[in-house]
Amino acid sequence: MKQSLIIVYITLVLLIAAAFLAGGSHLVAEGLTLSIKSAGRSAIMLIASFVITGQLNVLLTPDVLEKWLKRFSGLKAIVVSAAAGGLFPGGPFIYYPFIYSFKDKNLPFYVFISFLFGKQVYDFARLPMEITLVSWDLTLIRYLITLPIPILAGLWAKRFFGDKETYMLIMKAGDKDDSNNDHS
Fold first, then answer.
1. Which of 12, 134, 154, 171 is 20 to 30 A away from residue 47, measured at CA?
2. Domain boundaries of the chain, sorted by first residue
3. Torsions phi, psi for 174 (to 5 deg)
4. pLDDT tens for residues 105-162?
């Protein structure tokens, strides 16, 4: 069993116990009724969000995104890589190896930064779930407020690092190459 699931169930037991101590079984039943109503309202949108995530997984393969990223440069590359990052399906175990592969593809560092920020800030796969669990207006406000962040990060990376390839910057950051690295 995953550790996070264990923590959630421990929290659940503690909160039910606290509700029972505060108001008896009536308060526990009232809390469970509210939970069931909330789950029922969210179920249709949650199912849709999982279908969307599955479709993104099969349509946006790393090969498709790599072709997008190699096609553009400059501001277009920043916008496309930020959007591609937001569309890239899966969690860190999927996209970190993909972005690590940027060093072998001779992509500029600003494309790497835009993609990474786009994935963290946009992550469009969570949009339906966020609309369901928060609300569409708050989700829209959050997306509008954070919209420029990946683009600004890419522009700053382009300004400070120019067109240096991701490989060169990763090597400087401590990745091992064929030279003698006995610095410690």
1. 12
2. 1-45, 60-172
3. 125, 0
4. 677 888 889 989 999 998 887 887 788 778 889 989 998 999 999 999 999 999 988 7
